[in-house]
Amino acid sequence: MNRLPFNLWIVLIAAILIAWAFSLAGTQNQPGSIGYATFVQEVERNRVQEITIEGTRLTGRLSDGERFTTYATQPPSDTTVRDWIKRGINVVVAAPPRDNPFAGILIPILVLVLIFGLFWYFSRNFRGGGNDGAFSFTKSRAKVLTEAPKTNFRDVAGCDEAKEELKELVEFLKNPGRFHEMGARIPKGVLLVGPPGSGKTHIARAVAGEAKVPFITASGSDFVEMFVGVGAARVRDLFETAKRHAPCIIFIDEIDAVGRRRGGGVGGGNDEREQTLNQLLVEMDGFEKETSIIVMAATNRPDVLDPALLRPGRFDRQVPIDAPDVKGREQILKIHSKGKPLGEDVDLALLAKRTPGFVGADLENLLNEAALLAARDGRKKIAMKDLEEAADRVLMGPARKSLVITPKDREVTAYHEAGHALAAHFLENADPVHKLTIVPRGRAMGFMMPSRQDTLHWSKKRLTDQIAVALAGRVAEELVFDDVTTGAENDFRQATDLARRMITEWGMHKDFGPVAYQVREDTYLGGYDVRQYSEETARRIDEAVKALLEEQRERVVKLLTEKRDVLERVTQALLEYETLNAEQFVRVVEGLPVEEPPSEPPKDKEEKEVPRIVPKIKPGGALGGA
């Protein structure tokens, strides 16, 4: 239930109970009161000594001195009074109290005034003193920033194409007359779509800041209520507010909460949500041509929105705000690093290369985690090692340093990760190694982090090498221990998923050809598969997937058997150092010490110079994304 009506109903019920209690106070029996039937029995027993009659109210004293009060339905008759006197009871007849003729009218009026006064007070103060008082829950909950936000396009990075698309809106808001003179119609609505954390709300504020117009923001969930009609009323109020502040921008975040496709629940749909959507459609289509109001909305589920909401005249344009590329990530890191003291060794360009797939929120969180790590160590500047550790924390979780690991488990993990790393290093199309560690993080006992670059197209050779790398950890265990463990569960999932998609979606198997046997509906929150083949085809696909995995497994068995000595070197280095970066891993593979020997310190002039040759090693391997 909505909180405002619930609170008011509590106040209303409490006031009624108080009024009821006051109404009972006038007829409530006083202390020592008895029923009239009990009083008659006491008279028959001759236990009553005196009685005072005040109309229908009888008070008196019993033979034991106890006082009593009772009420008769009517004043006692003369015969009854004479009977009491014969019994020796001292009877006093007093004048009945005079009733106030206005009491019966004033008390109900005062109670009603109290009830509605409290109702009005709480309804007014709940919404901050609106004019509509008790009906303010139908008012829009949008926040109106009459002063333009201070955010501008200089504060937005990683989405240059989106900014170019939105600059046209800024020009219209600054000078709408120029467009109207040409008979042009500016888009009434712009839908920002992208994964969570990609900066959709941020760029909407930047548009308002650039145009220097008011910014009215609301969430899609603000409109949906359990009371039918409330959401539609809030939509009307939102657009009335916008017309008073035009030119302005209305921004509705998470619009899929109110804009979902209608008719999904046959016979059981949410009438309130559909009425709210209908009102939104009417308001957006009802703008006058010269109204300088632009509706911007954000969602990460454009696939569930109602088609009527996306047609021209409402949300004319969809602007994708996708995960930034390496250049965009570097620009975002520079923006979020403002105000943070960075050490001399920090290379944001290198960090951008190591974080493919990160969105703006991830990068901001990475820098914040690095600042926390530096502060925890008592340092004044953020070092590159802090950023590396923060990237690992964001991807895999914090290191589980307190976890008790047996030497056997530690050794198995080292061989497993070394197998992954060697396959990634020696296979031509695989991503090179960026980091190798047996320090547990999250649910992983260790991991090999590849140096992955932003890629739009994956070749068949690269995909098969990726499958081989995923299977290499289990193969290393088999070669060394002649046994297997449960540590390859996630590796099998990745390898099987890639193999199945190569066959059913990408047409990369000669026996199945360029046929889409399975369609994946990708969304920004994940995807789901739509199967489009028979049971017989499913059996053939399963056999082909298994054959492809076995083929790549045999490749890795052959590779690691040939490189068995390298596998042992990498494993021993892992057991000793626990973590190897790209340069250290390549040195171990080449049979060199993990750390390069230090240069010879300068000799004293009196000491005889002894020539010493130190080989100059060029670090191999590529540093890349996490």
Structure at a glance:
46% of the residues lie in helices and 12% in strands.
Explain what you see:
By secondary structure, this protein is α/β, with parallel strands linked by helices. Among the domains are: 178 residues, P-loop containing nucleotide triphosphate hydrolases (Rossmann fold, 3-Layer(aba) Sandwich), CATH 3.40.50; 59 residues, Orthogonal Bundle (Helicase, Ruva Protein, domain 3); 177 residues, Up-down Bundle (Methane Monooxygenase Hydroxylase, Chain G, domain 1), CATH 1.20.58.760. Helices cover 46% and strands 12% of the residues. It has a 6-stranded mixed beta sheet. Strands 3-2-1-4 form a 4-stranded mixed beta sheet, covered by helices on one side. Strands 12-11-15 form a 3-stranded antiparallel beta sheet. The longest helix is centred in the last third of the chain and has 28 residues. It is elongated, with a radius of gyration of 41 Å. The chain starts with a helix and ends in a 37-residue tail after the last helix. The C terminus is likely disordered.
Question: Helices, strands, pairings?
Answer:
Layout: H1 3-25, H2 36-44, E1 48-54, E2 57-62, E3 67-71, H3 78-86, E4 90-94, H4 103-126, E5 143-145, H5 160-174, H6 176-181, E6 189-193, H7 200-211, E7 215-219, H8 230-244, E8 248-253, H9 271-285, E9 293-299, H10 307-310, E10 317-320, H11 326-336, H12 348-353, H13 360-376, H14 384-396, H15 407-426, E11 433-437, E12 447-450, H16 460-481, H17 489-504, E13 518-523, E14 526-531, H18 535-562, H19 564-577, E15 579-581, H20 582-589
Parallel strand pairs: 1-4, 6-9, 6-10, 7-8, 8-9
Antiparallel strand pairs: 1-2, 2-3, 5-7, 11-12, 11-15, 13-14
Helix pairs in contact: 1-4, 5-7, 8-9, 11-13, 13-14, 15-16, 15-19, 16-17, 16-18, 17-18
Keywords: ATP-binding, Cell inner membrane, Cell membrane, Hydrolase, Membrane, Metal-binding, Metalloprotease, Nucleotide-binding, Protease, Transmembrane, Transmembrane helix, Zinc
Region (Disordered): 592-626
Binding site for Zn(2+): 416, 420, 491
